[in-house]
Write a structure and sequence with these properties.
signal, Cu-R_lipoprotein_NlpE, 8-stranded antiparallel β-barrel, 51% strand, mainly beta, 1 helix, Lipocalin, 8 strands
Length: 144
């Protein structure tokens, strides 16, 4: 009987020791985000209400993005789309001035879009070749 009590006590102590929780890692700092929005031109609608949210990690490195586009018919939304993925940033020198280029979906050539940060509070959409769009239309998104 004493052996049974000793074995049961030893077994219970082992089980309880295994139930102790390990120290938890401190939570990661929240990702930073920057939101740009505006109305972009559209060939067959009133405009594309666009919101681009760029997220960065705690070390200020690009992580992910969310692009919301609402195709307008007058003042009503005719169609909306949300795209999510990764993005990258790089520097580009143009006319002796250094700019940041933001590329969404950098690993998918068919879905890549580029924007140049040409002001503290604005980015401008670039064409498929990464050049500024030559137009009188507004291709800028303003920082919220």
């Amino acid at each position: 009987m004493k052996k049974l009590i000793a074995v049961t006590t030893l077994l219970a102590g082992t089980v309880l020791a295994g139930c102790q929780s390990a120290p938890q890692a401190p939570p990661e700092p929240t990702a930073q985000k920057v939101v740009y929005s505006g109305m972009l031109p559209c060939a067959d609608c009133s405009g594309i209400r666009t919101t681009l949210t760029l997220y960065r990690d705690q070390y200020d490195h690009p992580t992910r993005f969310e692009l919301r586009e609402e195709y307008m018919s007058g003042s009503k939304v005719a169609l909306s789309a949300i795209e999510r993925g990764q993005w990258a940033a790089r520097d580009k020198v143009e006319s002796n001035t250094q700019y940041q280029i933001f590329t969404i979906n950098p690993d998918d050539p068919g879905a890549t879009r580029q924007y140049v940060k040409d002001a503290v509070n604005a980015i401008e959409m670039l064409d498929k070749n990464g050049d500024r769009i030559q137009s009188n239309m507004n291709y800028r998104l303003l920082k919220k």
